[in-house]
Amino acid sequence: MRASLLQIDVNDDESVNSRRERVASLVRAQQDSDLVVLPELWPTGAWAYEGFAEEAEPLEGPTYEVMAKAARDAGVWLHAGSFVERDPEGPLFNTSLVFSPEGELAAVYRKIHRFGFDEGEAALMAAGGELVSVRTPGLCLGLATCYDLRFPELFRGLLDAGATAFVIPAGWPAKRRGHWTLLARARAVENQAYVLACGTAGTHGGVEQAGHSIVVDPWGEVLAEAGPGEEVLVVELEPGRPEATREQFPALKDRLLGLAAPRR
Question: Where are the domains of the chain?
Fold first, then answer.
């Protein structure tokens, strides 16, 4: 199973419409991949708070339409990163969409943990309240976004729902890049699952981005890592690796705190 992580340069000089079309072209170029992943809030910039309300879209707005078509054109599973969604009742959400190779909507995840300590995203957006996973022919993808990476209980819930890989779009700041790599590897090791963490490059909202998107295998080994700039990170995944790892080193069977949900 081939996965492509598109580490997009998000800066304040490029318009949302221009970036949307540019990113769609990059997705369409990944026809040799099975799964394509985009970063968090790439249309607006995760730190460009002042543009959230102005650029907010309905669920089936411009980003939905362009990304659905791009997934269909490329024939790939597409995790379209996230965008600012305006709910019909008013709240804003940090919302991720997953499309099938036919361009059909397969999953919607609204970010649960909002960053900002009562400011920024935490003040401007409502929290999602549902764990979401989506089954593809190769892997069951558990969905999380950026700051979610710091909350291991979310990933345990996704594990119990059957996830064998975690897909994590982010707009992670360069000054905390060390945490990004450390936490991605920790989530992989403790859950014996793949981690595909896709960040942004560039600077937006005055915040330099970490880049360094990373793919980690279920043993915690780094399979691929991007540099600081815009880049397409391509990696081959073995769909049976998570189950094999769990059989070879059955640590998850020894969990005592909390009860695992029944396996389906």
Answer: 2-250
CB neighbours of residue 119 within 10 Å: 10
Per-residue pLDDT band for 257 (boundaries 50, 70, 90) equals confident
Amino acid type, 151: F
Helix 16-28 to helix 62-74 angle (10° resolution) is: 20
Reported CATH class of domain 2-250: alpha beta
Helix (H) or strand (E) holding 139: none
Whole-angstrom Cα distance, residue 242 to residue 172? 26
**What is the distance between the alpha carbons of residues 24 and 146, in angstroms, rounded to a whole number?**
22
Is the model's pTM score more than 0.90? yes
Are 143 and 99 within 8 A, CB to CB? Answer: no
Checking if the pLDDT of 204 tops 70, the result is yes
Residues forming beta bridges with residue 5, ordered by sequence position:
37, 233
Q: Which residues are catalytic?
A: 40, 111, 146
Q: Which residues does 155 contact at the CB level (< 8 Å), separation at least 6? A: 142, 144, 163, 166, 187, 190, 191, 193
Any bridge partners for residue 105, and if so which?
Answer: 99
Alpha helix (H) ranges present in the chain? 16-28, 52-55, 62-74, 121-124, 152-160, 177-191, 241-248
